[in-house]
Amino acid sequence: MSYQFEVTRHDDGRRLDALLRSIYPALPLGAMMKFFRKGSVRLDGARADFRTKVAAGQMVFVPWEAPDAQPEVQVRHRPLDVLYRSDSVLVINKPAGLLSQPDTKGEDSVATRALGYASDPAFGAQLVHRLDRNTSGVMILALDGQALRSLMVCFKERTANKTYLALVSGQLPPSGQIDAPLLKDPDKKLVRVASNGERAVTRFRRLATDGQFSLAEVEILTGRTHQIRVHMNHIGHPILGDAKYGDFSAKPQVRRLGIRRPMLHATCLVVNSPDDCLKEISGRRFDAPLAADMASVCQKLGFEIYS
């Protein structure tokens, strides 16, 4: 059995081995390399090198059966709060309580709702980064393959800058930087500061305080799971409403303020990229209006600048 397919524009510029691994995820890498060495994988009829970057329109021949058909994903027609949309990217303001990606098949999420905004049904919409379920704010998704790869490079190389607003316990210092390694425990689904963890750096600037609580602008220089939540707790200023990493001594006050989730909002995103496919958004600032519940808490605390 064999299979032949045409490279689409979404895979233009990808390495051939990466393309094949995405199509045949269950095929062992060693077995794939063996077929390359034997010359059984061909590009436009010629023996192919696994490092070759393919171009749209080229024909790839492999000595395997056609890949299994992907199950149809249910499109959620519930709308997203769209901040910007083009043929290649979608920028949204994610509400708190909505998963970025479903935990189980058919579950409501940004990823499933975004399929309804796809420019090309053959590609769909792809997450580039995630926000925790109960974190609101700006997210960017890719609507074609070139934009996806370019955006992933931006996030990996930290040329995509994310800024958050956080309400925390206590009187936060005017500014500071937290440089503390984080270790993830997948069994307990917790993250903690540990010397053998991955380096994590967070910067913050206090915007307002009443002595008991503070509003901060927070920038992450590394993208670790739960980074802001763990780091703010580590310095003694946990995020209000954070049941997992929060300050339980503040629970009565949190209840009085009507807080039902961690008061964390991704307020701004700027992507800087030299790639042509992102030139429309490179250097552009995308701001997500503060979620209503967090704005209400700010107002109650007298932090009217963000109410």
TrEMBL record:
UniProt entry keywords in alphabetical sequence: Isomerase, RNA-binding
Keyword Cell membrane: no
Entry-linked NCBIfam families: rluA_subfam
Family per similarity comment: Belongs to the pseudouridine synthase RluA family.
Organism, as annotated: Jonquetella anthropi DSM 22815
Catalytic reaction annotation: a uridine in RNA = a pseudouridine in RNA
PROSITE patterns documented for this protein: PSI_RLU, S4
Active site (catalytic residues): 132
Coiled coil: none
Signal peptide limits: none
Record-given protein name: Pseudouridine synthase
Any one GO biological process: enzyme-directed rRNA pseudouridine synthesis
Role: Responsible for synthesis of pseudouridine from uracil.
SUPFAM superfamilies per the UniProt record, alphabetical: Pseudouridine synthase
A GO molecular-function annotation: catalytic activity, acting on RNA
UniProt cross-references to Pfam families, sorted A to Z: PseudoU_synth_2
UniProt EC number: 5.4.99.-
InterPro entries xref list: PsdUridine_synth_cat_dom_sf, PsdUridine_synth_RluA-like_CS, PsdUridine_synth_RluC/D, PsdUridine_synth_RsuA/RluA, RluA_PseudoU_synthase, S4_RNA-bd_sf
Residues of the Pseudouridine synthase RsuA/RluA-like domain: 89-234
CDD domains: PseudoU_synth_RluA_like (cd02869)
